Amino acid sequence: MKEIRKASSILLCLAVSASLLAACGSSKGGEAATSGTDGSSKAEGVKKEGFPIVDKPLTLKIMSQDAGKADWGKMPVMQEMEKLTGIHMEYQLTPIDSFATKKNLIFASGDMPDIFYAADLKPAEQVTYGSQGVLIPLEKYIDEGYAPNIKKILDEHPDVRKSFTTPDGHMYALPFIDTGAVWYRSPMWYNGKFLKALNIKELPKTTEELYTFLKRVKEEDPNGNGKKDEIPLTSVKLDDLRMYFFGFWGMYGERIYADKDGKVHYAPQEEGYKGYLTFLNRLWKEDLLDHETFSQTPEQKKAKGQSNKIALFNDYYPYFTLGGEPGEDNPLMTPVSSEIPGTPVYGKHPGMSANGTFAISSKNPAPEATMRWIDYTYSYEGSTLFNQGPEGLLWKYKDKENHIKEWLPVPGGGDREEYRGTITPNFGILTPGISDPEVSKGLRSSFDDWIDKENAEKLVPIGKSPFPNVYLTNEEQTEASALSSDLDTYVQQMEAKFVTGQEPLSNWDNYIAQVKKMGSDRIVELYQGAYDRWNSNK
């Protein structure tokens, strides 16, 4: 449950950090709808403006992953949407951890829903199933007036449109958009109690200073229990810290990234990657990096945090690991510089989801109406509804004209976030829509403001978006997938061996030769071509 809360909390964090405004707005693929003077579509009985969307009640099948908090059909948000739009949804829901498998089975069987919602559609899936006609192009309905909110966003932020346009010129999926987002992956935090016990007034700024700090944690008993049980740095398989630490050696993507000159890099064969491995191996040898890093679960890591044993760790917020309530005592880690010139850098969020969150299948009988339905979630009113529920449940307007709200007591008491998960599907999953700062006016806490301040001081000035959302062609994707399958496995295995010393770093040249033999340079070529296409598509 904590993992679910964590995911939904980061969505709330994103939902207060962007700078987008909105406006409100769905035809069978390939048929041109004709508009009447009242703004309705004569061909489909779909109104381009106002509600309900359809003249006659319409039922559509919607597939999504589900955090399992409540029956979607009984959620106030979905009931409100049906009343507003005239569209009834039949739900095909799958638990989060098995959704990817279910999605693959659905595509293989051809037994499609009408709508894919919160579907985590990878670029390869969009290209493959779009070109096969399984997913329909969306740009026609957007540009013909069935999605005015989405069109407004795409017109104001052309990078969003081009980042979700496949090589055949079509948009088969919509993203979650947050142009003000900072965190690409959750960041690193210091245990404030340890900093205080060690009388540290200034956070480490170089890898050497970081090493010295971690060494002190190991030797000086900052948790004060008389035992040497402190864990200077912990991780779960390095997946949680890799992105952050890469920036110390000038890399800002875990796999592929493009530098300021537009040159594509494959991180695991960069010289900076060797520096990263060398540093972690040093920490490992001196027992400064948790020796359970490659075996522990996130829950085991959190248990160590709540026992006040961890000095430096990754999580969405520090209190998720350390326990307690939101506060300002555990500072965001300042990225540190290394021997690589121009460091540190930080892999910043690109402003939109990497994968598609919404798509329409070719089985859908009313794509115009469906586009109007989803377009509402990209408006202020729709974003408010899906993020916070209908007015009067969890919140009310304090000043409606200026969009200022205030929280209401949670019905029946209890945790607000847990209750929110019972009223809206936007809980624990990444859903289509925008992050509009207007939505959270009046609802922000001092902790939210502190997070923004930490980001602005420590991450934004050195932030670089790793790589745009680019698409390979079908042929390129087939080749890249085949190469990546073995290459990614090898790189992951060798990372663990280098860090733990099973493989000496004196064998670096052999590793590089093997990576190149397995096709790393070809991966770079393929993504360089895709990046160049994206860059030229103004």
Description:
- The protein is an alpha/beta fold and 538 residues long.
- It is built from 20 helices and 17 strands.
- It has helices at 2-14, 76-85, 99-109, 123-131, 139-146, 148-156, 158-163, 192-197, 207-219, 242-246, 271-285, 298-306, 318-322, 367-376, 380-388, 416-423, 446-458, 474-500, 508-517, 520-536; strands at residues 40-41, 46-47, 58-66, 87-95, 115-121, 176-177, 188-190, 231-233, 256-258, 264-266, 310-314, 346-347, 356-360, 395-399, 404-407, 433-434, 463-464.
- It has a 4-stranded mixed beta sheet. Strands 7-11-8 form a 3-stranded mixed beta sheet.
- A hairpin with a 4-residue loop joins strand 14 (395-399) and strand 15 (404-407).
- Residues 1-22 form the signal peptide.
- It comes from Paenibacillus azoreducens.
Q: In total, how many beta strands?
A: 17
The Cα radius of gyration reads: 24 Å
Distance between the termini: 43 Å
Our estimate of the beta-strand percent is: 5-15%
Q: Strand order across the biggest sheet? A: 4-3-5-13
What does the main sheet amount to? 4 strands, mixed
Oligomeric composition of the shown chains: single chain
Compute the average pLDDT: 90
Helical residues, percent: 25-40%
Instruction: Report the uncertain regions.
Output: 1-43
Tell me the number of helical segments per DSSP (H or I, 4 or more residues long): 20
Large-scale geometry: globular
The secondary structure category is: alpha/beta
InterPro entries: Bact_solute-bd_prot1
Protein name: ABC transporter substrate-binding protein
Organism: Paenibacillus azoreducens
Signal peptide: 1-22
